Each structure stands twice: as structure tokens, then as C-alpha cells.
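User: Here's a chain of 476 residues. Predict its fold as C-alpha cells.
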Amino acid sequence: MLDFSNLEQYRENNRIEAKKALGGLPKSIWETYSAFANTMGGVLLLGVEEHPDGSLHPIDLPQPEKLAGAFWRLLNDPQKASINILSRRQVQIRNAGGKRIVAIFVPRAQRLDRPVYIDGDPVSGVYRRNGEGDYRCTPEEVAAMLRDAARQTPDMQPLRHMSAAVFCPESLIRYRKHLRRLRPGQAWEHLDDAKFLCQLGAAVPGDGGQIHPTAAGLLLLGRETEIRKQFPDYRLAYHDLTQTDHTAAAHILSGDGDWSGNVYDFYRQTRRLIAVSRYPASGDKDVAKALAEALINCLVNADYYGKQGITILRNPQGFVFANPGAFRISVETAQSGGVTDPRNAALAKMFHILHIGDGDGDGITGIYAAWQRHGWPPPLFEESFEPERITLSLSFDKGGKRRRIPGKDKKTAIAQVKKALIIRYLTDHPSAKVSAISRYLSLKPPLVRRLLKELTEEDIVTAEPCRRGPVYRLKA
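Assistant: Prediction complete.
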């Protein structure tokens, strides 16, 4: 939410860009439109200047309606912008301290619409936002967005330049035994390995009775040396920083050379270490399930063509799961449950067959619920760029004693603190439902509804009707 009557309290950042625009639409406005759309969204302020101290100040636009109209016309010109992701209500003429400005609210584009590019150039016309402003995306970043925009996930790709020799026989044996133990009498049980791999989606038939791996099959059951031929930056790492002897049991690296290095065997080893890891509620199955969900979520949502690979850390405070790739759906949508969009759908299916990541732990929702039950800080998802990376931090630290809140009316003071937390949440998340806010802040839904009602009456929050309950936003 922006307080337009006090713009001087704001500074330009990843979500705010100010331009004077006294001479008409600045050319750089389109770079910022592309950058906001391809990153986290943001607000473009026309008729606002930045002072030497970084503060923002409105300057009365002589014809803001003409400026807004010119922007809207060009936005719908495919030679200027590849797609218009705005609605009319997101281009507004606002009063800022008695001066009229134009505020353009750019949302984050859906993955099917990315990359959003300008000037008819889908290669060099793609921008993103960082702490220093807009920057032109590298070819690798554009390629990553195009992979995410495809209807079929990248791991479904047949690799016809490779043969069945890429598979690790021992990994395949372990996988088939795992399946046989879980689902005795399963229809594929008596198939030979080649036919089994094809039925699984790990391979496709070729000429002369030969088979070729799919990208998912290579990742799941291939040898690390072969995987790196297709995915040069492939790397899987687990480090237990609570161990002091640096034994092999505390570290798992895909490039060690003494095991297959594939995703399936990494899951097996890491899952076992996580399960026996000491944490404050080690006897509770819900925490073990939540950690398993975090692990599989990391593996099936990674961009294996991306940089830096997958890293999982166990530290004294908790766990950190990090994988290359950007969010395909919003965290709020993932929290609400029922909607999944894995980056590697074929790989996810191969795990689901083993009842891994099939909802037994309720996915992201189960992670939030487990952490709330134990009074731990809410799980923290972070997204970074250059390169794209998602990090999930799970902390066991309850933060010690609760801080006393001064004041005569303690209940009112506590309510104000909780309202501030809700406002902070809605500042970072453009929209949310009661369920998402209650999970994230560890507050009961009835209390969140009451506080949201008060914030709505105070004209701070708006409630938009939705079939499964209202969606709340900060009022602009």
C-alpha cells in the first residue's frame, strides 16, 4: 500500500520506480514495465521526482489523463509490449499532496506470459528488476522463462542422442524393489527393464528395439557423469552443519563418485538422514513428513538447467532447502493447497508412484501446519534472481520469551501489533485469503477475520468477493 499523501517517506526499490514524465512518456518506462512483469511486480509513478536524499516528491502533471491514455495505447501495441497484463483499474490518476500524478500498478506476469518483452525483441527486449534498477536479461534467464512458459515441462523431453547406457543399473534395481514393496502385484512388475522404463516415462522407444532416456528418467536413475552431459550445472548437496567430525554421513554430494549421483538415490540418502536428525520434536511424525515434503518439493521444482544446483543444509537452527528456478505459482496459492504446478511434472509422477510427494504430508500446507503446531516461526520462502533461486528456511527456534507489550490497554496494544503484522504480510503479498494469513502468522482464522474486518472498516484493506472466501488486498 502506498500513502500518496506522504510519498516522501518512500524510496525507489525493487517494487517502486518514479519518473518525472513532464516531457511525455519516458522511453525507459517500457524497460521498467518488462522488469516488473518478469520479476515481482511493482508500481510506476509518473509525475514524481527523486530528491538527492532519495526521497520521492510529486510534481503536478499538467495533463495526467493524456499521459495515462498514451501509455494505455502503446501498451496494447504488440510492437511496443509483447502482452498487456494490466487492467484499466491498474492505471490510475492519483492525488498526491494536492498534486496529480499517474500510478501504474504492474503485477507479476503469469508463467505462460513470461518473458514479457518490449520493442518486438524477445531476446534483448527482456528486462528484470534488481536492487540497482532494471537490467537486460541474459540469454540464460530468457531461456529459463521460456522453459517455464511451455505447456509440457522440460523433463518430458526425449533425449534421443543418448542410449539406455546412461541408466545406473543399481539405481533401477532399488527403484523397482521400492515399487514392488509398496505395490505388490503392480501391473509393471514382470516387465523387462526397457519396457518398465518406457511405461514409467523414464525412456522412449527408438529404432531397432533401442530405448532413449527422457530428461526425467536421466535425472531420476542416470549416472551423474551422464546427467552432467545434459545438465552441465547439475549438482546435489546435503550438508549437516550440526556434525563436527565431517564424516561421510554428514555430507552427500552428487559428484563424489562413490554413488550414482542421481536424484532418486539422493532422495533416499537425504531422506534417511533427515528422518534421524535431531530436532526439538523428533518424535512427531508430522515434522518428519513436513521435512520429507520440503525435500521432494525442492527436487521436483528445481530448474536443473539453472545454476548453483540444489543445496540442503541442516544447521543448529533448522533446515534450509535451496534450488535453482523461480516460482511458477504464488506462495499464497501453494499454501492454500489443491493447486500444483511442478516444474518437473514427469519427475514428480515417478516419485508419486512410490507414494512420495503424493499429498501424504499435505504438501506446502502440511509444512506450515506442522510448524504452527509446534510454535516455530512460519516457514520462510524467498525468491532471488541473477540467478533464479528459491530458498525455504525452516527454523526450530521459538525465539525465547515473549516480549512484554507496554500500555494500559494491553489487549488493544496486542491487536495493533497483530494488525501491523497483517499489513506487513499484505505489503509483501499483493493479495491473500484468511487461510494463508492465519497459517503464515500462526494466528487462528476467526481472529484473522476479525482483524481484517477492522482493517477494512479503517479503510486500510479491501475485501474482494471470491467463491471460496474473500481475497484481501491493501488499499492503494
